UniProtKB/TrEMBL annotation:
Domain GHMP kinase N-terminal, residue spans: 69-156
Keywords: ATP-binding, Carbohydrate metabolism, Cytoplasm, Galactose metabolism, Kinase, Magnesium, Metal-binding, Nucleotide-binding, Transferase
Originating species: Thermococcus pacificus
Domain of life: Archaea
Nucleotidyltransferase among keywords: no
Domain GHMP kinase C-terminal intervals: 249-324
Name of the protein described by the UniProt record: Galactokinase
Reactions catalysed according to its record: alpha-D-galactose + ATP = alpha-D-galactose 1-phosphate + ADP + H(+)
């Protein structure tokens, strides 16, 4: 049995999910692959780490390794009353780890989808999303929102997903066929700054509490201006970002990729200046991509390193990727990489 679980790129709507705002991601054609069969316990070989690890199902103890993603999914399933058996197999694929393309959520969704198939658990896509998120939040211990898991489960070839993370209502919007998404991994692993993510989340949640609101969708700029400085700065960014997601949705529906690109670049400089999650490396990419004729560019995912994206004409994507990579490697010592990706189907 084989499961293919994509990575994700967020087109726009960054750091909006934990205040129940709007996001617009896509699943992309870089994958985590699990191949294996049913067994009494779990034994997996990781191609990335070149090692085999095992555990028995009555011993779900965190160990600080890649296996925690597998254990976390079992833990979440058991908590919810499911009783899957084990797996023997291997995990690999071409999705880079720690690059800000959601390799951890992709791995968790791969595990839950594998168990769903192997043990006929009858889980819906949304149930798989919520189980993978529970594993990440409560077992692995990362306080993320729903963006990554949702994109990976609900991706659709040729489309972006417009998602209201409050109601979980979503809509697929066609992505232009002649435009490519150039993903640029800065070579700076993004886990390094998980405490900065938690800090942003706490401040944003507290800002909402101070205003007595449940979701950032309901907050006006006037209300933001009454908050103490840091709260106003963070929540103000989120409120503008929610609006930009709606603007990008409208522009995409009209096929106006020039406007989409402009909004993306504007979003980048706003998050860099007011949310403080960009870096010199990400800013360098955004500047270069725009100089070389991209429609627009921005960091994608949590920031603090990781990856950025640019929207580019399909026939120029490779050329731009190579050119930017060359200049980047003269400016920074980290080993960067680029990928030309397209919106793809969710975990299967
Ligand atoms: C990370 C988190 F996992 C997401 O939930 C989201 O908050 C994102 O950062 C920022 O938009 O990928």
């Amino acid at each position: 049995m084989r499961v293919l679980s994509p990575g994700r790129v967020n087109l726009i709507g960054e750091h909006t999910d934990y205040t129940f705002g709007y996001v617009m991601p896509m699943a992309v054609n870089l994958y985590t692959v699990i191949e294996g069969e049913k067994a009494g316990d779990v034994k997996l070989y990781s191609e990335h780490f070149n090692e085999e690890k095992a555990f028995s199902l009555n011993e779900l103890v965190r160990e600080g390794s890649w296996m925690d993603y597998v254990k976390g999914v079992y833990w979440a399933l058991f908590e919810e009353g499911y009783k899957p058996g084990g797996i023997h197999g291997r995990v690999g694929g071409n999705l880079p780890l720690g690059a800000g393309l959601s390799s951890s959520a992709s791995f968790e969704l791969a595990v839950v989808a594998f168990l769903n198939k192997a043990y006929n658990l009858n889980l819906s896509r949304l149930e798989m999303v919520l189980l993978a998120k529970k594993a990440e939040n409560e077992f692995v211990g990362v306080p993320c929102g729903i963006l990554d898991q949702f994109s990976i489960a609900f991706g659709k070839k040729g489309h972006v997903i417009f998602l209201d993370t409050d109601t979980l209502e979503y809509e697929y919007i066609p992505f232009p066929e002649d435009v490519s998404v150039l993903v640029f991994y800065t070579g700076v692993k993004r886990e390094l700054a998980s405490s900065a993510y938690a800090e942003r989340k706490e401040v944003a949640e507290e800002a909402l509490r101070l205003l007595g609101k449940r979701t950032s969708k309901e907050v006006s700029e006037e209300e933001v201006s009454r908050l103490p400085a840091l709260y106003a700065r963070y929540l103000g960014y989120i409120v503008r970002e929610n609006r930009r997601v709606l603007e990008v949705r409208d522009a995409l529906k009209e096929g106006d990729i020039t406007t989409v690109g402009e909004i993306l670049t504007r979003a980048h400089w706003d998050i860099a200046k007011n949310y403080g999650v960009s870096s010199d490396e990400l800013d360098f990419f955004v500047r270069k991509a725009n100089e070389l004729g991209a429609y627009g560019a921005r960091l994608t995912g949590a920031g603090f390193g990781g990856s950025a994206i640019a929207l580019v004409d399909r026939e120029r994507a490779e050329e731009l990727g190579r050119a930017i990579l060359g200049e980047y490697q003269r400016a920074f010592p980290w080993r960067a990489e680029y990928f030309v990706v397209e919106p793809s189907d969710g975990v299967e």
